[in-house]
């Protein structure tokens, strides 16, 4: 199945209907249904103040300049950020901080759902645990940990050293297994990225799409430099869409293969 095989060239309303309503695979998914993506553990998207400002100012910009393109909209958003009244900017900033607070909660849950690299027990972590057991709270800064270490006797330090050595010896096998699995995951990731062309530049992806004769690009000039501004803008939208869908597919393939460590998926 060719890339964008169900997408009419540069008809974004049709594109939106095709991508979000199809029940069978399109783009890079040869065997996975669209709904399968919804079951994967997607990384939460970090809120962007600039994107929120763009959403706030875009209706005004488009109303004043109906023929404006995306590059000019971005430029005008920057101008409005410098000249907008403080009340409007404060509203955007409050919304941003609210979404950031929610993001921090979901990103923590996301990270906890992945497989972190086993960590060796350190003297600092032992002191932190000892501080919490004595005070009932975590140390607020490094000085609390340093103070706890200075107050330990020689015998207590030797005891912690023995415990630390035993704990690290017991998890060494787990660390080696994790490192091997992570190395295999990196190799699988590089293969999938090469297969789906997620690291291509826009121009490189344009050349590849023309070489593959994908239907969405048949009507375009042979060279990217010969495209009009409107054609370039539409192509960039399709390229971004391709990368998003490809990354979701890559994530699913990695999870199916058991590569779920934090270093690969965060």
Strand and helix layout:
Elements: H1 12-21, H2 49-64, H3 70-83, H4 86-113, H5 123-135, H6 142-150, H7 154-196, H8 202-212, H9 229-256, H10 262-265
Describe the structure in your own words.
66% of the residues lie in helices and 0% in strands. By secondary structure, the protein is mostly helical. The chain has ten helices and no strands. Helix 2 crosses helix 3 and helix 7 crosses helix 9 (229-256).
| Gross geometry | flat
How far is it from the N-terminal to the C-terminal residue, by CA?
Answer: 30 Å
Major sheet attributes? none
Question: Unreliable stretches, pLDDT < 50, 5 or more residues?
Answer: 1-40
Helix content: 55-70%
Mean pLDDT equals: 77
SSE series: HHHHHHHHHH
- Quickly give the structural class: mainly alpha
**Tally of helical runs:** 10
Q: Work out the number of β strands.
A: 0
Strand content: under 5%
Radius of gyration: 26 Å
Summarize it:
With 266 residues, the chain is an all-alpha fold. The protein has helices at 12-21, 49-64, 70-83, 86-113, 123-135, 142-150, 154-196, 202-212, 229-256, 262-265.
Attribute tags:
0% strand, 266 residues, mainly alpha
